[in-house]
Amino acid sequence: MTTRCGFAAIVGAPNAGKSTLLNRLTGAKLSIVTPKAQTTRFRVLGIFMHGAAQVLLVDTPGIFRPRRRLDRAMVAAAWTGVQDADLTLFLVDAKAGATDGVRGIAEKLAAEKRRAWLVLNKVDLVDKQRLLPLIAALSAIAAFEEVFMVSAAQGDGLQEMAGKLAEAMPAGPHLYPDDDLTDLPDRLLAAEAVREQIFLQTHEEVPYGATVETESWQEKPDGSVRIEATIYVARAGQKAILIGDGGSRIREIGARARAELAGLLERRVHLFLNVKERPGWDDERARLRAIGLDDSAS
Ligand SMILES: Nc1nc2c(ncn2[C@@H]2O[C@H](COP(=O)(O)OP(=O)(O)OP(=O)(O)O)[C@@H](O)[C@H]2O)c(=O)[nH]1
Ligand SMILES: [Mg+2]
Question: Could you tell me if the CB of 173 is within 6 A of ligand 1?
Fold first, then answer.
């Protein structure tokens, strides 16, 4: 049997369900998911095997109108994901429909003449009758080789899409060992688990004002791991909210992130969190590089 291997980039507006799709197809919680927009900040590779094909899925930050250096670097990372891929999966939240943002992404895909598939997600939330006009509106902007209607959260339509993806990958050797799930370093996975809890447990500007870096990682003789992470926030008020009354919020963030990480790393985890005020971190190259965002495009 011919082996196949290729990259498929998942792009779309913030909150379309891109990370949910990557996690579902790989069967692992590789990319953090929250109900808030702009959760994903950098490209996340997820590897899945289908027969003799190795599909390298690339989750990307949602595409929106960027303001801060951080935002510009996020959107640039998304488009780089598209340029590096053999195929683009344009994921659209069927409930939100053809918003201006979604149309803008379709226009750019058309202008770049990328091989693209249209994937309408969250079909569990909408009337089937609304899907055909949505497909027509987007197909009038860009040519899509295939169209799928799926629910990344519930799994509907994903088996068929996974099979088609495998067939669409170019013939060639596998680039990663077949049992690898991602190329993300454990230190970054740990920082992301903390950031996910910040997104889930705080509101308004607080999650957007925070970044997380793993400072130290110590393997213990008993098989557990001791992780220290720093949360940088833009303002003193955000630090106070993150810490909470008597430290209650930061304890809860730590407890949930630790449980999540223990599952992911399959061992006991001791997690220590520090919160530091650092105004302007989102404009600091070193902070962006720490989360793997190349700053050349910003
Ligand atoms: N009902 C429903 N909800 C979904 C589906 N897919 C994703 N969601 C929800 O949509 C929200 C956003 O999902 P994410 O996977 O974080 O979206 P994203 O496109 O990665 O978002 P950004 O990283 O911010 O660009 C979460 O609350 C998901 O649980 C779906 O098929 N059906
Ligand atoms: Mg995401």
Answer: no
- In the reported structure, the alpha carbon of residue 223 is separated from the centroid of ligand 1 by a whole-number distance in angstroms of 34
Q: Is 15 in the pocket of ligand 1 (CB under 6 A)?
A: yes
pTM reported for the whole predicted model = 0.97
Cβ contacts of 207 within 8 Å, gap of 6 or more: 34, 36, 195, 198, 199
Interval 182-231: pLDDT, tens: 999 999 999 999 999 999 999 999 999 999 999 999 999 999 999 999 99
What integer is the mean pLDDT of 159-174?
Answer: 98
- Burial class from Cβ neighbours inside 10 Å (0-12, 13-18, 19+) for residue 174 reads middle
Ligand 1 mean position, distance from CA 38 (Å):
11
Q: Whose CA is nearest to atom 1 of ligand 1?
A: 122
62 lines ligand 1 (CB under 6 A): yes
